[in-house]
Amino acid sequence: MTRIYCDPWLLIVHKPAGLLVHRSPIDHHETEFALQYARAMNGGEHVYAVHRLDRPTSGLLVFARDAQTASAMGKAMMAGEVKKTYLAMVRGWTPEQGFIDHPLRDEPEDKRRKDAPQPVRDARTRYRRVATTEIPVQIEGHATSRYSLVALFPETGRRHQLRRHMKHISHPIIGDAYHGRGRHNRYFAERFGQGRLMLAATGMSFRHPVTDVPLQLHAEPEASFLQVLSIFGDALPASLRAP
Questions:
Q1: Domain residue limits at 75
Q2: Total domains in the fold of the chain
Q3: E strand or H helix at 75, and its extent?
Q4: What is the CATH number of the domain that holds 136?
Q5: What is the pLDDT of residues 198-213, one digit of tens each?
Q6: Among residues 7, 54, 106, 110, which one is catalytic?
Q7: Quick one: which of 35, 8, 6, 7 has its CA closest to 19?
Q8: Into which EC class is this enzyme placed (predicted)?
Q9: Distance between CA atoms of 20 and 169, rounded to whole angstroms?
Q10: Has this prediction a pTM greater than 0.90?
């Protein structure tokens, strides 16, 4: 885990894919969490996770260093004052841009409670296509396979929102074991020797909860993400090409 920003009130890190933010009732056997590493970065003092990233998602993760800052950041997120940007590689060629306004039923963290009634909440995501590619590989009945790299801008923060919204518009995220397409996931796992969710939290902007100074944060995707993006070749922005 890498530190991106730190001051007396906030600690912001880049969480790698595969690391839980904190202990989960369905992953009770796990012993390593982002919260532990953040606490170590904070000199062993307690930190507060302001939000969460799914275990397979990499990218920016915010911790508060005191309860008051945690409360202020939580309120800012609930009010939509924290703007987030994600990158995702999806199946198919998406439109150049779009807006997904599709309510989602809450997903309980504990899958053993999946049959319990859950409320339906508003969920909104904007997206913009960054690049496209077509590879000469037959995966689902066509002689070639098409993919898009998209920037995603969630306007709400529902559980698995981006993954569920991209599935809803028939452009599931590569590597998504629950909402994606198995044949595509297996192809990339075999081609690159590792399977990962192609979703990364790369940008965040908000006004500092204490100083009121605007913060613009950015984190480059990790190497495993950039490796898969190599299929886009020259269509990929130079900043996203693996060294």
A1: 2-240
A2: 1
A3: helix 67-78
A4: 3.30.2350.10
A5: 999 999 999 999 999 9
A6: 54
A7: 35
A8: isomerase
A9: 28
A10: yes
